[in-house]
Amino acid sequence: MTIDYACYAHEDEAGRQALYLQIDGMTCAACAFKIEDRLNAEAGVRARVNYGTQRLHVSWAGQTDADKGRINALVPLIEKLGYRAAPFDGESQMEQAREAQRFLLRCLVVAGFATGNVMLFSQALWFAPAGSLVGATKDMMHWAMALIALPALVYCGRPFFYSAFNALKHGRTNMDVPITLAVLLTSALSFYETRRHGDYVYFDATVMLLFFLLIGRYLDSLARGKAREAAQGLLAMLEGTATLTDGTSVRIRDLRAGQVLMTATGEKIAADGVVIRGASDIDTSLITGETLPRSVEVGEAVYGGTVNMSAPLEIEVTAASDQSLLSQVVALMEKAEQGQAKYVRIADRVSAKYAPVVHILAAATFLGWVFIGHAVWQDALLKAMAVLIITCPCALGLAVPVVQVLASGELFRRGILLKSGKGLETLAQADTVVFDKTGTLTLGQPQWLNPEALRAEDYALAVSMARRSRHPLSVALCYGVKVADSDIEVEDVAGCGLAAQVDGQVVRLGKGVWLGAQAVDDGQMEMWFRRGEAAPVRLVFADRLRADAAETLTGLKARGLRLVMLSGDRQTAAQAVAQGLPLDEVRAELLPADKVALIEAMQAEGRKVLMVGDGLNDAAALSAAYVSMSPSSAMDVTQNAADFVWRGEGLRAVLTAQRMAVRTGQLVTQNFAISMLYNVLAVPLAVAGFVTPMIAAIAMSGSSLIVVLNAFRLKWARG
Amino acid sequence: MIILMLMIPIAGSLGLLALWGFMWALKSHQFEDLQGNAERILHDEDDAD
After folding, report:
1. Which residue among A495, A521, A544 closes a domain?
2. What does the pLDDT look like over A89-135, one tens digit per residue?
3. CB within 8 Å of chain B, chain A residues 228-257
4. Which among A29, A431, A527, A622 is placed 20 to 30 Å from A219, CA to CA?
């Protein structure tokens, strides 16, 4: 995808041009310094890499448009070092989220400070020999605790107070309401008791409760922040710009229906549209699974993501891009903040139903101890507070989202884009994997099988000619070949091939008919070469298997999944690919509708199918399957239909995602069990009055922390 | 017990000092890129500004 970096540049406060770039390929901090040093060596350029977010901030002197354009010369410097760079413009949004995170961290640290210092006194009061700390000394220590705890509570209770207040304002309750209530009532009681020289002083319990809860909250927000950064970074790498007919560059995300795109030869078409000027060939391998290009004329529809091969085209955009993959993922990320997965919804519903129960239970405990148990009201109130704290369904509220967020963050980091909220749950249940052949198991790029058919001088000539063309077979011909370019004049004969004049002879490379060759019908992709009147030579091509296909399939097989290949290609071609792969079933010569029917038949048998495919012909099958994945080289339409999209050459992402999904499912179940068990055990004890607010605070925040830490095992386990 | 009148404020202000130090570090973006900054110190070619 071509990118005009200049349209992302903006002026900073210092009057310099500045831009954020997402960098791909950094493996250690030394890589970051290498990039910085290279750019800082340029006059007037300042560069700084944030290794954590893999983002580079680069600024350079100048105000004019020409100065802006300088970035287009700087980026190749980075690429020459072996890294990919993509413009990133979400920095201001990211900064907002980071500020929210810093706010939580400030609250956390203040709560930690207050807890430590209040403990200094409460420990002394607890462990002093009976009767040794009384009267004025005890009061002084209570006042000192109040002096530390009360301002700290006001400061670091804000995340809970705001959230509780918002919920109440909208007539709802959430889990912050009982926490807020407990903190406020316990503090008020402690203050009252301090003033009347009493003993029911529990400042330590309140600050400690907030401290532990904030640890859980902060870890949660850290995980979300990481997931968001990784997702935005991945999106930036997938984004590009398009050129309009008036020469301006527009981000593909901002394209609107009716705009006219200028698509140069070799460029990826940015959006679905109709050709309004020009005629060219389009690489339709993604649409039909065929590797050979299709010619298009004025009035014909073209799909976003396909490549324009032979001549410039003007294309009127028909689909506004808010349907696009990027905007879908952005919308998903926003939803993911609340979580929309099934388990998350269950947890939400339970928390919502449960919160009123918490309050009723606490009130009943208070009344029960006053009227039936005849306790003093302070004591009854403290028992009620213990119930309020201990029954709060915090762990339940955190149990699922934390795991989901960590899992999606980890996937994003590995270049796998999770597009649907329920994707992880459904993927974990899949028991059959259906692969498409072309572009999925194979790279969708032909490979030249018989280079030995050409004599050395013909070989060099054919490669030099092929370099002038973007036809997939020409590209395959020069793939990885290091031959010096011959100085020849090459003519592109539309629809036929390439011709050149060498030593008074016409040399032709292209279709067999055009060269006057005898047709061979064995179903293989072919190209012919003929020097003058010598006999034409047949060059044969076949699709290449992805390098890690066998390894990935073996891995999936070992995990007990049934592997099926459904191909639209001929039986012989399909068998050739299937050879050496641990497939359970291979079906070929299928129409797109057949694939859908086969998948539906499997699902009718009770199987849960993961469909992996990349072509337009797979889009229907992807939607029909229980869960689906597609590579980022796929058509936009196909990517839109898939639940997961992965970046990169390999197929390994399928295995990684499947592992991660299963692990996520396990951790979610564990977390549910932990939080349920905790509530079942702790609540009766609290109602019975065996629990002080201090122990309640430890137990409750402890359960939240256990759930969060359990979720973090996802990161520690290798996957 | 009069020593407490001295010790408590001293202990408290030491804690506050540490708290202030942390807030200062947070505000000046010292926690933005922990891994990168940890290794930046080992990097020779760092620019002098």
Report:
1. A544
2. 777 778 888 888 899 999 999 999 999 999 888 888 878 777 777 78
3. none
4. A29
Cα–Cα distance for residue pair A330/A309, rounded to 1 Å:
31
Q: What is the ipTM of this complex?
A: 0.87
Measured CA to CA, the distance from residue A244 to residue A259 in angstroms comes to 7
- The answer as to whether A300 is a domain residue is no
Tell me: the pLDDT tens digits for A12-23? 878 888 888 888
Centroid of chain to Cα A641 = 16
Under DSSP, is residue B45 helix (H, G, I), strand (E, B) or coil? coil
Is residue A288 scored above 60 in pLDDT?
no
User: A216 and A105, same structural domain?
Assistant: yes
B5-41 residue pLDDT tens: 888 889 889 999 999 999 999 988 888 888 788 888 8
Mean pLDDT calculated for residue range A153-159 = 93
pLDDT tens-digit readout, A308-365? 877 788 888 887 655 555 555 555 555 544 444 455 556 666 667 777 788 888 889 8
Question: Is A571 found in the same domain as A507?
Answer: no
Residues A511 and A581 in one domain: no
Cα-based torsion angle of the residue sequence A184, A189, A193, A195 in order, rounded to the nearest 10 degrees: 50
Q: Which residue of B has its CA nearest to A99?
A: B27
Please answer yes or no on whether B8 and A37 come within 8 Å at the CB atom: no
Q: Nearest Cβ partner of B19 from A40, A50, A109?
A: A109
A624 with A697, same domain: the answer is no
pLDDT-wise least confident of A111-125, A206-220, A447-461? A447-461
What is the residue range of A223's domain?
95-230+334-405+665-714
Residue A491 in contact with partner chain B when CB distance is under 8 A: no
- State the DSSP code for A440: I
Task: Of A151, A144, A124, give the one whose Cα is nearest residue A194.
Answer: A144
State whether A140 and B4 contact (CB < 8 Å).
yes
- B-facing residues of A in 100-159 (CB < 8 A) are 102, 105-106, 109-110, 113, 116-117, 120, 137, 140, 144, 148
User: Which tokens is A503 given?
Assistant: 């030593």
Query: Can you give the pLDDT at residue A344?
Result: 55
Contact assignment for A113 to B4 by CB distance below 8 Å? no
Most confident of A165-174, A263-272, A331-340: A165-174
Number of compact structural domains in chain A: 4
Instruction: Tell whether the torsion through CA atoms of A152, A338, A419 and A328 is positive or negative.
Output: negative
B45 — contact with chain A (CB < 8 Å)?
yes
CATH code (residue A537): 3.40.1110.10
Q: Is the residue at A194 inside a domain?
A: yes
Which of A27, A42, A99, A106 should one mutate to test binding to chain B, selecting the residue with the greatest count of B CBs within 10 A? A106
pLDDT of B48 above 50: no
In a domain, A249, yes or no: no
pTM confidence score? 0.71
Q: Which residue of B has its CA nearest to A49?
A: B36
| Last-in-domain residue among A68, A89, A110 | A89
Contact present, A165 and A158 (Cβ < 8 Å): no
Quick check: A113 and B19 CB within 8 A?
A: yes
Pick from A29, A106, A116: which is nearest to B36 by CB?
Answer: A29
**Quick one: average pLDDT of A427-433?**
91
Q: Look at residues A573, A618, A578, A577 and name the one whose alpha carbon lies nearest to residue A599.
A: A618
d(CA A683, CA A651): 49
